[in-house]
Amino acid sequence: MQGRCVMIPKLSAEFFGTFWLVFGGCGSAVLAAGFPGLGIGFVGVSLAFGLTVLTMAYAVGHISGGHFNPAVSLGLAVAGRFSWSEVPAYVAAQVAGGAVAAFVLYLVASGQAGWTAGGFASNGYGAQSPGGYSMAAALVIEVVLTAAFLMIILGATSPKAPAGFAPIAIGLGLTLIHLISIPVTNTSVNPARSTAAALFAETGAFGQLWLFWVAPLAGAAIGAAIWVHLLSREADAVAAPPMAPAA
């Protein structure tokens, strides 16, 4: 019973954090990016995704760890930073939070006369790719960028990293990831985000959703393995930079 009570705040934090990521990130693409004359474009959408993670990491990261992403939960477990037994519950909370956010976004967006969901900020390859990139290209970029994202997370939250700056590094890292890959897949690196958008897209997004689970999860495991076997011992042995603030 006590274990369940401990999990409620963690799962609630993951639910609301993922809600904010999907509502803020996908919402910027659905509502603001295409506004005539004032669209925020790729850069604005990229910043929106990064800012959602940055703000929620500071807001609830101390409660749940601030994963907001099934791939992150898996990668942290592979790296020994998170309990495998909690991964399924975290993933369920993240997928639920993303789905509810997409539903709320759909309610808001559909209030505009003549609006249609279209791609609804979903991820895809081939005909569903913003730039017409192939399935192979989508697979490679999602694996590589998710691996890099896990390395950023593990490095920024390691004991020798400057204290208090991890959400900034992680948020900016996600912004850069979007700047690179929006033209290729519309950027996933997060199966919960991809699932949420696919639920309401009026394209073939749901049929391609498998790639946006397989690639981010594989990339997360690879990034965690690289950190554990090639970088973590060196990082633990090197002192923090002199300018690093005290914990």
Architecture overview:
By secondary structure, the chain is mainly α. The protein has a single domain (2-237), classed as Glycerol uptake facilitator protein, CATH 1.20.1080. The chain contains eight helices and no strands. The longest helix has 31 residues, at 2-32. The radius of gyration is 18 Å and the shape is globular. This is Aquaporin Z.
State the main characteristics.
Glycerol uptake facilitator protein; globular; Aquaporin_transptr; mainly alpha; 247 residues; transport; cell inner membrane; disordered C terminus; 66% helix; 0% strand; transmembrane
Strand content: under 5%
Number of DSSP helical runs: 8
Instruction: Give the second-level CATH assignment, the architecture.
Output: Up-down Bundle
Tell me the total number of β-strands: 0
* Oligomer status: single chain
Mean pLDDT level: 92
Helix content: 55-70%
Instruction: Write the CATH homologous superfamily.
Output: Glycerol uptake facilitator protein
CATH topology heading: Glycerol uptake facilitator protein
Give the tally of structural domains. 1
Distance between the termini: 34 Å
Q: What structural class should be given to the helix and strand makeup?
A: mainly alpha
Low-confidence spans:
236-247
Choose one word for the global shape: globular
Radius of gyration: 18 Å
CATH level 1 name: Mainly Alpha
Instruction: Report on the biggest sheet.
Output: none
Q: Give the helices and strands as they follow along the chain.
A: HHHHHHHH
InterPro entries: Aquaporin-like, Aquaporin_transptr, MIP, MIP_CS
Family: Belongs to the MIP/aquaporin (TC 1.A.8) family.
Main location: membrane
Keywords: Cell inner membrane, Cell membrane, Membrane, Repeat, Transmembrane, Transmembrane helix, Transport
